[in-house]
Design a protein that fits this description.
The protein has 9 helices and no strands. The protein is mostly helical and 314 residues long. It is rod-shaped and about 175 Å long.
Length: 314
């Protein structure tokens, strides 16, 4: 008996499922319910066009709720083209995407603004500030995409995001360039200080030294070293100019001052060595002249002495 009842029930269920009339009623009921939701979708579209995002989101949420109820009655409405269901669904899907994009766009705009600040900072050589603003871009970008994944499908938004993401490579490259510039500036500062200090010390010693060949030789050696330092500084300055690429260098004024003073000192030391050389030559010539005079006097004296000696013996 139990088996007979089971078979009867299965047969009845199969007959119900096979009944076109019942399926038609189920489909029509689902479509009719969906169309009520479609009116809410149209209301959401209208509100979005009026820039009333809150109203648009509220109306579309009601549409989604009605759509789910309709699908529960007959899920075939999602794949059917009858009664315009395919076009209705596509239309409302676009409305949903537009609302999602409108929801995420303000946050994305903030992200892009942070990106523009980072780019401006980088051009101004403000690496740390550029990094901070870029990290703000990353955070806001992620927030925007979490709110609206569909932004990835909007060409203009995707292009702007990728443009800003490329800034990370520029920041990293600038960081390396900035490090190289910092090293070049420090090297120039150190070498120009060495030039100035060594040259000024040598100039003082030369000016205070007695006039003798040893002092002149020491001055010449100091001048050779100063000129070698001057060439090193010139290489440093060329490296700084190549690396800074228009960026501001905080030490520039101090560096220019040191280089100018070092260059001036080398000129003064060159002149001092030349002056000492002339003075020494003049002194040596005077000494030679006096030596010649003394020799002649000695010779004259010797001749007179010899004459006197001859007279005394006669």
């Amino acid at each position: 008996m139990w088996k007979i009842r089971t078979l009867v029930m299965l047969a009845a269920a199969s007959a119900w499922l096979a009944s076109p009339a019942l399926r038609a009623d189920s489909f029509d009921d689902a479509v009719n319910l969906y169309l009520k939701g479609f009116d809410q979708c149209a209301e959401a579209k209208s509100a979005l066009g009026a820039n009333d995002l809150a109203k648009a989101r509220s109306a579309f949420a009601k549409y989604e709720s009605t759509r789910q109820k309709a699908v529960a009655l007959d899920k075939t409405i999602l794949t059917s083209s009858q009664r315009g269901m395919d076009s209705n669904l596509k239309y409302c899907n676009r409305v949903g995407t537009d609302i999602e994009v409108a929801t995420g766009m303000p946050t994305l705009d903030k992200a892009l603004a942070a990106c523009d600040l980072a780019n401006a900072d980088l051009k101004a050589g403000k690496l740390d500030t550029a990094k901070t603003n870029y990290q703000q871009f990353i955070g806001l970008r992620d927030e925007a995409l979490a709110l609206a994944p569909s932004l990835n499908n909007v060409f203009s938004a995707r292009s702007e995001i990728r443009r800003c993401e490329r800034l990370e490579t520029k920041i990293a490259g600038f960081g390396k360039e900035q490090a190289a510039l910092t090293m070049a500036v420090q090297s120039a500062m150190d070498d120009s200080e060495t030039l100035q200090t060594a040259c000024e010390s040598a100039l003082t010693q030369l000016n205070d030294a007695e006039l003798n060949p040893q002092a002149l030789q020491a001055g010449r050696q100091a001048l050779t070293k100063a000129q070698a330092h001057q060439k090193i500084v010139a290489v440093d300055i060329a490296a700084v100019e190549k690396l800074k690429k228009g960026a501001a260098v905080p030490e520039q004024k101090a560096l220019d001052s040191r280089v100018a003073k070092g260059t001036q000192c080398v000129g003064q030391l060159t002149a001092a060595v030349a002056t000492k050389d002339r003075q020494l030559q003049t002194a040596q010539a005077d000494l030679d002249r006096r030596g010649t005079q003394l020799k002649k006097a000695n010779q004259t004296c010797s001749a007179i002495t010899a004459i006197d000696s001859n007279r005394a013996t006669q």
